[in-house]
User: Which sequence fits this backbone?
């Protein structure tokens, strides 16, 4: 039974046919086009399988690139046409029903691998050919020398039949004889070549030692030399050669002639230059890429004394929105237009623009006065982005945030400069974007420290670097200890003890606050159990309640209720002994879904405290629907009570809040109590409990136990 006309094998064959037709005109093989197609078919199958493999492996691309060289498709256009063919038809004919975005990404990686495999195979082949040429050159040199001493007929046969260019000149440089290969290289007749003098064949790209070696050879001071040399052809094009020049002596050993052996390396050099360009330039925008930029930056930073550099690190504001709403193709066109505008901004000597990746670009300026020129360059970039960009009929407004680093050469490495520019750029973005900021060493140090703390957080929890201190909650009526608030600390190996404000925001940003909060909850509840057991299981002394803070991230975590229940059951602590503190700002505008876990915990008997009350500007009517039983009044309301007399306005505000809370059956706790007068005033106003340095600073659990025992002593 025959295959379907449009089955996978037919589409694979169609792809191989298109491929062979594309590269056949630029091959140097004796095979016919159908024969070349049969040679390419296994490689097409290899690429097709790699494109659709469950686990992607770019090795298939390298093998296919090497196979091109095996098939004598070594012309630079063969690689270019192959990559164009793969880009246009591989996914179309061999992609099947896979995800097109993923297939296109894989296809791009296969193209890069093919180029790498092609270059490596060509390099190996070139090395082999060079070795063969060298051997042939040695043989030719010996044969020519023998022929000069033997018969002219034998010399002529070797001379004319050689595949490499051979020329003979006298010691004055006058060309005496050239073979057919050399004539074809230059595109000149033998008569024209024989009218030349070697000295006339200079080229601006000649290495400094080229003519020095030549003079030593004709003086008899060396037997041969080998260089890479360029020559001009009559049409103005450049012929690149591997040139070996040897000295021929007469039977008495005196210098007589010079023999030149030339291998045409023009195509190989052009291919290497093209591969070098592709390796150092961005495929989408044509701008220099990260590799090329780092080379230039390192060169600028190693310049001599008195030289300076200025760097602008640009990130487009809101570029992800363009990709998400209009698609990646529109995003790519936007990047191309931005790249063109940036390129027009860097036209002065010592300036360049590069794309680092995504929507990140850099502009570099060098010279003795970069303090001024880098600001001007940043201003030109911001102005270049002002005009809207038209994409698919839409006028898109493009804005960017720029971080600027400027300074003398020789003081910092390229990595340090780029890191400082990156940090400064994000500082500009955090300030609202569409602006540029100058690097600040102190801000850099803070950002680096934050980054270091962020990366160290996960392992810090595993290594047990966190510990908990407890601050007592004191009843204002009788002065007894009614509970304690658990406050987590980080004993960092380098920075010492860190307070929560140094690492809790980082933990919330990374999501580590969930396991960290779970650990704090379990340790605190276990400590409450230990206090109860140490006090003989009575509630006469020791904390009746442990207060644990919940972050907004923990509130939205689906395992909050289950984790809390499991911890209470595992430790044997009653729910009424636990109070969870939630900041007022976290509950502003909270919907029923967010409040549902708190309501379930409150129904179990867990107290919910509204922390920092009065700082979130919440509607007091919201208190009716929040499942809270305690208000923790922010210290900003009671700071004036440390002085005598207290501010009457603050007294009225606190009195009103206490009255409102009690009318709603809510207890009131005050934070930040630091003096006896403040504590007495709060007692008079009707506050229930308080905490602060007046009673005790946060400390280990033993100090709190001692405090409760002192309160219990008659």
Assistant:
């Amino acid at each position: 039974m025959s295959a379907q006309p449009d089955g996978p094998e037919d589409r694979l064959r169609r792809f191989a046919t298109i491929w062979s037709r594309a590269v056949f005109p630029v091959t140097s093989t004796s095979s016919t086009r159908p024969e070349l197609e049969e040679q390419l078919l296994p490689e097409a199958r290899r690429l097709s399988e790699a494109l659709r493999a469950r686990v992607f492996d770019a090795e298939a691309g390298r093998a296919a690139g090497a196979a091109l060289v095996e098939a004598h498709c070594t012309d630079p256009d063969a690689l270019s046409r192959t990559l164009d063919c793969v880009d246009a038809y591989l996914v179309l004919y061999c992609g099947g029903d896979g995800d097109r975005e993923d297939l296109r990404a894989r296809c791009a990686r296969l193209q890069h691998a093919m180029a790498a495999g092609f270059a490596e195979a060509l390099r190996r082949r070139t090395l082999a050919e060079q070795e063969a040429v060298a051997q042939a050159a040695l043989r030719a040199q010996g044969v020519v020398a023998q022929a000069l001493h033997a018969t002219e007929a034998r010399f002529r046969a070797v001379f004319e039949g050689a595949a490499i260019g051979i020329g003979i000149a006298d010691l004055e440089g006058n060309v005496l004889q050239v073979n057919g290969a050399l004539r074809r290289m230059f595109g000149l007749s033998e008569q024209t070549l024989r009218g030349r003098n070697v000295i006339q064949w200079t080229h601006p790209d000649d290495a400094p030692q080229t003519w020095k070696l030549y003079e030593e050879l004709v003086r008899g001071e060396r037997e041969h030399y080998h260089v890479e040399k360029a020559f001009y052809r009559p049409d103005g094009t450049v012929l690149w050669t591997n040139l070996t020049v040897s000295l021929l002596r007469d039977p008495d050993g005196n210098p007589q002639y010079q023999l030149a052996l030339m291998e045409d390396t023009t195509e190989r050099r052009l291919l290497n230059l093209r591969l070098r360009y592709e390796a150092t330039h961005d495929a989408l925008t044509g701008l220099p890429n990260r590799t090329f930029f780092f080379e230039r930056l390192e060169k600028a930073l190693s310049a001599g004394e008195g030289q300076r550099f200025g760097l602008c690190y640009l990130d487009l504001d809101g570029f992800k929105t363009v990709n998400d709403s209009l698609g990646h193709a529109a995003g790519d066109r936007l990047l191309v237009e931005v790249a063109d505008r940036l390129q027009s901004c860097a036209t002065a000597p010592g300036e360049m623009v590069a794309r680092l990746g995504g929507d990140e670009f850099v502009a570099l300026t060098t010279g003795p006065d970069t303090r001024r020129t880098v600001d001007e360059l940043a201003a030109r970039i911001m102005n270049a982005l002002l005009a809207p960009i038209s994409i698919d009929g839409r006028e898109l407004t493009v804005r960017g945030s720029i971080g600027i680093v400027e300074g003398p050469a020789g003081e910092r490495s390229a990595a340090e400069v780029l890191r400082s520019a990156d940090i400064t750029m994000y500082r500009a973005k955090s300030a609202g974007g569409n602006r540029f900021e100058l690097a600040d060493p102190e801000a850099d140090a803070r950002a680096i420290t934050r980054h270091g703390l962020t990366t160290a957080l996960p392992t810090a929890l595993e290594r047990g670097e966190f510990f908990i201190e407890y601050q007592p909650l004191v009843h204002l009526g009788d002065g007894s200890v009614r509970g304690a608030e658990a406050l987590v600390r980080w004993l960092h190996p380098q920075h010492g003890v860190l307070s929560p404000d140094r690492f809790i925001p980082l933990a919330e940003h990374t999501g580590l606050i969930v396991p960290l909060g779970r650990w704090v909850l379990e340790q605190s509840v276990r400590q409450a159990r230990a206090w109860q057991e140490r006090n003989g299981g009575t509630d006469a002394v020791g904390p009746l309640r442990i207060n644990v803070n919940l972050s907004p991230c923990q509130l939205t975590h689906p395992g909050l209720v289950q984790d809390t229940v499991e911890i209470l059951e595992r430790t044997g602590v009653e729910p009424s002994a636990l109070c969870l503190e939630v900041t007022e700002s976290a509950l502003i505008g909270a919907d029923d879904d967010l409040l549902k876990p708190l309501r379930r915990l409150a129904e179990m008997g867990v107290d919910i405290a509204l922390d920092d009350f009065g700082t979130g500007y919440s509607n007091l009517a919201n208190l009716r629907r929040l499942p809270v039983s305690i208000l923790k009044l922010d210290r900003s309301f009671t700071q004036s009570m440390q002085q005598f007399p207290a501010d009457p306005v603050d007294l009225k505000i606190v009195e009103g809040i206490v009255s409102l809370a009690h009318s709603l059956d809510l207890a009131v706790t005050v934070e930040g109590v630091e003096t006896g007068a403040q504590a007495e005033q709060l007692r008079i106003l009707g506050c229930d409990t308080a905490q602060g340095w007046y009673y005790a600073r946060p400390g280990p659990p033993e100090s709190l136990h001692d405090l409760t025992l002192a309160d219990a002593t008659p």
About this structure: Residues 1-5 have pLDDT under 50 and may be disordered.
